Amino acid sequence: PPEIRREDYAPFPWLIPATRLEFELGLETTRVTATLEIERNPDADRSPTIRLNGDGLSLVELHCDEEPCTGHMMDGDDLIVTLEGDNHVLRIVTEIDPGANSQLMGLYASNGMLCTQCEAEGFRRITFFPDRPDVLSVYTVRMDAPEEQFPVLLSNGNRTGTGKDKGGMHWAVWHDPWPKPSYLFALVAGDLVAREDCFTTMSGKDVDLAIWVRKDDLPRTAHAMESLKRSMTWDEETFGREYDLDVFNIVAVGDFNMGAMENKGLNVFNTKYVLADEETATDGDFDAIEGVIGHEYFHNWSGNRITCRDWFQLSLKEGFTVLRDQLFSQDMHSEAVKRIEDVRVLRSVQFPEDSGPLAHPIRPDSYREISNFYTSTIYNKGAEVIRMMRSMAGPERFRKGTDLYFERHDGEAATCEDFVRAIEEGAELDLDHFRLWYSQAGTPRVKVALTHEGDTASLALSQEVPPTPGQSEKRPMPIPLRIALFDRATGKSEGEELVMLDSAETTLRFDGFAEKPVLSINRGFTAPVRIEREIVREDLAFLARNDDDPFARSEAMQDLVVGHLLEAADGSPAEGASEAIAGALGEILKDDAIDDLMRGELMMLPGVTYLMDQVLLADPGRIFAAREALKADLGTRLEKELEALHERASAVPFSHDPEAKGARKVGTMALTYLAASDPQRAADLAAAQYDSADNMTDRQGALMVLSGIDSAARSDRLLDFYDRFEGNALVIDKWFSLQASSLHPDVIEHVKTLADHPDFTLRNPNRARSLYMAFTGTPQGFHAASGEGYRMIADLILELDPINAQTAARFVPALGRWRRIEEGRAALMREQLQRIADAPKLSRDTYEQVTRSLG
Ligand code: DPP
Ligand code: ZN
Q1: pTM for the whole thing?
Q2: Mean pLDDT of the chain
Q3: Which of 119, 121, 296, 369 is catalytic?
């Protein structure tokens, strides 16, 4: 497959002011008639032809200006039509089989309904079209379908007509007045019911809201609807963005490759991010739904009104929209807790990506398959880069920048450079040098040393951006760091300031310190960098106790633990380290000044993936053992306190209040420690928590703990859980995933058995991920020294690739980490990658990921 390069961008030679699509819908055969009004693009080179992308389509009819067209040819999957004049009307008929579409791209069937997914290049599986984001067109869509089978017919924009025909057929016409690229097209046909509501926008316009689901799911849509209304209000208040159509529809679909999709006026969601009630969804699920509803809604401006010129600019809409959804969730809940969670995701997913074979800048220079670039780098690092601009400008000036961006580029297909320029002008920032964050990959390492002489503290900062594939030389980047200096005696600081490290090294002086202060740095995680600080354990313990920035406090606690675990995994734990950690954790358990949601964060040990990423060559077995040993040690030392915490938490009645949510979080967290120190006692407590649970958070938490402990209670409660929720796909996903991600030594055997379970299928991405993605996180399973875990994932990739290439390719990065893992396992991982690479007929998706991973 060819490599596509950013520098080769050229505007499309034709404009398509209007597109009319007519669908004769059927599960096995759908006939699509596309009528395109085309005219020459005055801003592009003149071309004797028009290239219409296709993917596996067969052409049934082609008319040009009402005449059958003869001047056309196929180039691979694309259709090329020769055209002489400047204005034409093309009419193209294709026939597709949605029932056979297991890739879930284009038009496909899910549970008897029909739906679409077009981003990034799925539209070309429906009809021939210039399937690129810079070709904007006004769409009118007519759907004809048997009414009994497909009573609901939806598309983008507003419904402008509907009617019945003979033979039980009916039809609907939808018109979207906003010009859009093909990737934002959507259609849904099915037997659905809606939760309806209404929203009045800031200028007084009424918008009809509807969330469409299967009948049985209707009671589980209230939270999604509330989340939607909150998103609409928040975007008006925070970014001045108002909704722009008379209706906003959301449809929940059980078979979906991604989380959700922002199609104009018709968002299509994975059921996972819509359906929730307290019996079937955890607190984490509720929060995720709110975040994803917000994210897709916010795309209406950052993505739809202003879209991307080409797919290299993907972070223009995704990075910005992730930042917007993060700020939204921060405002709805605890800012500090949300920040800690977001940074945890960044570090456990994006940092390893950025230090591995798939590292790429947030604005990549080339790709073979764009689906592979919906990465944590584009999304999460992209959000961090824009967050840095916001930190440097402050929220008010940043808002002036985004106002200018929305005003200047409304209706356009824009670039990251357009965004940076708008922020630069609107927020009055100099971002000249800052643009390096768009072009350089790799996580900068910042070395920090604080020295003290007389009454001056000197802070020496230096940076290094590591080489990444295709980028051996790096330039220093501007790095904004929020810092504070604490007085040892009072435990207080004089306040914080934002310092810039914008060269390879710099030294900053702070006067007025008779004694050496304690440094708190990168507070709030102002910059997505690795901080390497020379700091003694006592000072970390001091910050874990005293830092008034809750984020920095949790960082100190994490650093304390990480330092110890890496030494322990190395076989040389420092004297007194676990006492110090137990001391700090003990203080956290009893500190009345923090709420339970924050306490839960502070109690959480760094994950194995994150720990593995902290060393050059990781031994997952030893890291896992060290982590379990620390848990057991802390569980023993703090047994009384942890049991008391669990008891206190268990007594709090269910509600969605932060207090009750926090209690659920710390209750289960306490059990995870006891599970390591006294498994039988923990199993009893977990079984009791399971039996008395009146909500999924407590029930799942208890089962999570139980599934790692060999006991009668384990098999008992797993059976009960299955029986209780049989038939509810999302909850049965949890059942698979709890077992596949467990700490149980026999996890490999469990996964093999589960793969043969009648409810298991590779055709549903949620189900496939619930078993195998969960498994890739197990150090004792996926990373088993025998290599069996690696082989299982390679087998999975090979089996899934022909069914659903996009989902299959997502499993490759787990094997791609081999360079950062000890020799023995590294060889086994490589062997499996090679076995995949050697397989005949790999998809473009998997081929690209595997070859890049082999390096
Ligand atoms: N579903 C993806 C997202 O919203 C693609 N745009 O981020
Ligand atoms: Zn998005």
Answers
A1: 0.99
A2: 98
A3: 296
